[in-house]
Amino acid sequence: MESTETLNDPVKAVVLSSSLLTERIFLYSSFLEALKARVKADLWTTSAKNLHIDQQALSSEMTVDSFPAVKPFKQFPYTYLRRLNEYVWDYRLKPPSRMGMIKEIRDRNTRFHIRTLYAPARILAALRREQVLEDWLEEFLLTYPRSPESKLRLESNPPDVVLSTGSFRFEEPAVAAEARKLNIPTLAFITSWDNPSTKNRMVYKYDGYLVWSEIMKQDMHHFFKESRDVPVYITGAPQFDVFFQQRFYESREDFCARNQLSPDKPFILYALGSPNLFLEEASIYYLAKRVAEGELGDVQLLIRPHPLHDKGLDAGLFKQLGPRIIIQDNGQGGLSVPTRAQTEQNIYDWVNTFRHCALLVNLSSTAAIDAAIFDKPIINLDYDPEPGQSRQRLVKEINHTWTHFKPVVDSGGMLLVNDDAEMVEAVKAYLLNPGLHREERRRMAEMVCGFLDGRCGERMVDAILDFVEKEKKRKNKHS
Whole-angstrom Cα distance, residue 31 to residue 191? Predict the structure, then answer.
C-alpha cells in the first residue's frame, strides 16, 4: 500500500497536444502559472515550432518533447469497423450535425464499399446494439499497436495521468490507448463546444473528462453515455483566459500600426471559418467593395483568416480595393495543420483584433464567442455566400438545428442576415448603435464558456489534481 505522503507528492502528468488551438492553452493561459510545484507536466507536441520554445519561459513545471510516432489503423478490418460504429450511433441518436445536408456532403466522398455499411448500421441501431458494439470495438482496437514509441516512453517513466486535448483527432487516441493498456489513468479535455455533437466517435473510454460548461457536460452525457459514470469537470474555456490577461493588451495605436490600419477609424472584422466547409470570398468581397467605396462611412475592413487554413481568399483581388481593406497575416503559411503553433505575437493579434474591432461578421464560427466576450456586435450569415449557394440548406441547418449552435442563435446575441444586402444594413445599424443586444451577447458567452474570469486554466490544474487524488485513493482502497 502507498504511503500517505505519496498522495501529497507533485503529480506527474503527460499532456498531449496535436493542435495550436489547444497548445496555446498550456503556453499562455492561467494553466502554466497554476502548475507551480503541484504538477510536473511533460508536453508531447506535434508542433515543430514549439519544440524550440524557450524552456525558461515555461519554468521548471513543464518540459516539451516531440510527439511519439503514430501509425494509422489498417483499413480492414479496423477502419471498416470504426465506420460501422459511427454509422450505428448516427442512426441511433440522429444528431442534426451528422445527418441532413452534412451527411449528403460526406456521402459524396465516401467509397462504395464503405457505404455498404449503412444497411447493417441501420439494423444494429434499430436493435439498440450501439453500446454493445462500441464496447467490443474498443477492446478490439486496443489490440492494434499504433504507437509502440509511446508505450516505451510511458513504461520508462509512468505518469500519474495522461491528459489528452485531442481525443477526436488522429494522433492522441493512439497514446491514450497505450496508457489504457498500462493502467495509467486518462483524462480527456473536450476541445470545443461543438465536439460532442459534431465529431466522429471517441471509441476509447477515458477515466474522466474536462468540459467548458454545463451544456457541454449534458452533451457528453447524451452522446457518450460512459461519461455518466466518471468525473466530468466543468473548467470553463481556458483558451479564452488570454482575453483577461492585461499582458496581452496592446494599445489601439500599436495594434493598428502592425496591421496597416488607421487608429482613428473604426474597423469591421470579418473572421473566416474553415474553407473546407464554406467558401466566403464572394460575400467578403461584396462587403469590402462597399467599405472601399465609402458606403459605410469612414471605416476599414480587417479580414482574419482561420488560424488553421491559408486557402479561401485571393489576396490580390482584395489588394486592388485599396488601403481600407487589410488581410491579417497569421504567420502560419505553408505549415501543415498539426505542426502549426501560435507565438506570443499571434496571441497579441488574436486578443487585440477582437478588443479593437467595431463589430464582427462571420458564418457560424467560434469567432462569435470571441467577439461576445469583448462585447462586440456580431453579424452571422444565414445564407451560403458562395455563388450558386449549393450549401444553402446546410447553413440553415447549422444555425437552426445543430445541437451546439442553435442555442447561440436563439440567445439573441447575434443578428442573422439572409443576403449580402442585409449584411451591409446590419453593419450600418451596429456602427450606429454598438450597444444593441449587449445583454444577450453576455448571456450567450456565459452559456457557451461556463466561466468568464480568466481562471479556466487554473481550474484545469485543480481538476487534474482532484482526479489524480481520487484515482490514488481508489487504487489504495483496492490494493
Answer: 15
pLDDT at 4: 43
CA dist 180 and 283 (Å) reads: 48
Q: Which residue has the cell 474591432?
A: 357
Which is higher by pLDDT, 362 or 107? 362
Burial 88-120, CB ≥16 within 10 A → b, else e = bbbbbeebbbbebbbeeeeeeeeeeebeebbee
First to last CA, the chain: 6
Which CA distances in Å does 292 have to 297, 322, 361?
9, 7, 17
How many residues does the structure list for the chain?
479
What are the grid coordinates assigned to 137, written together?
470495438
Residue 338 has pLDDT above 80, yes or no: no
Question: Which comes out higher in pLDDT, residue 195 or 108?
Answer: 195
Identify the helix (H) or strand (E) that includes residue 260.
Answer: none
* pLDDT above 50: residue 406: yes
Q: Specify whether the CB–CB gap between 137 and 101 falls below 8 A.
A: no
Contact between residue 207 and residue 471 where contact means Cβ atoms under 8 Å apart: yes
Cell numbers found for residue 447: 452559456
Tens of pLDDT, residue by residue over 418-448, are 999 999 999 999 999 999 999 999 999 999 9
pLDDT of residue 3 exceeding 50: no
Give the chain's domains with CATH numbers. Answer: 8-71+146-241+454-478 (3.40.50.2000), 75-127 (no CATH), 250-449 (3.40.50.2000)
User: CA 5, 8, 9: angle at the middle one, nearest 5?
Assistant: 90
- Indicate the pTM of the whole model: 0.94
Non-local CB neighbours of 322 within 8 Å, separated by 6+ positions: 292
C-alpha cell at 344: 506570443
Burial class for 245, CB neighbours closer than 10 Å (0-12, 13-18, 19+): middle
CB-CB neighbours of 83 under 10 Å: 18
Determine what percent of the chain is predicted with pLDDT higher than 90: 80
